[in-house]
Amino acid sequence: MNILLKQTLTASILSTMIASTAFAAPAEAPPAFVKKVADGLIARLKADSSKLQSNPALVKTIVRQNLDPYIDSQAFTRIVMGTYATNQYSSAAQRAQFEKNFRETLIENYGSAFAKFSNQTYTLRPYKATNSKNPVVTIDFNNKGEKIPVSFQLVDKGNQWKVRNINVSGIDLGLQFRNQFAATVKRNGGNIDKAIANFKPDAEAAVNK
Questions:
Q1: CA-CA distance, 193 to 201, in Å (whole number)?
Q2: Considering Cα of 85, then 87, then 90, then 93, what sign does the dihedral take?
Q3: Any signal peptide, and if so, which residues (predicted)?
């Protein structure tokens, strides 16, 4: 086989692989994905409920293992940083540091929130498929007779869905966190490094606002 033919075949194979990756779609329907994540997380919280009483920090490990892999932290970071996610205001290194910090604080926020639902049930609302690239699936958590709607906005990452934003009781957490970060930047005199270091997103404050 001559060199030109080898190069042509190699290029053809690579093009096919890239194309198949680019157009790959999640095998699961959005509601099935959200149900799988919710069921896995709640089952783990229930299984370890007795341990959580003596080791509250365990909930962060559970969330890190059962929820964090399904969060698109890069997309969430862009939403929360808003205009500060552009090259005009921050560098790639600063955005990477923000994402690292933000991901960890999300685990803390969601850990404390989901720990409250460990012994509760939920119902999945009927899903309405749309042409949107960011489908939304809503769960109603039944907390002592009170229904708390939690909507998960998803993004297609090629071979699986990931969560890019969350809405609780009609409150867009991404937007509320963005407002909190903007306020942090202002308090730190516009210094992005200081704002990133000091930013602590507060989900409870956002939802109760």
A1: 16
A2: positive
A3: 1-24
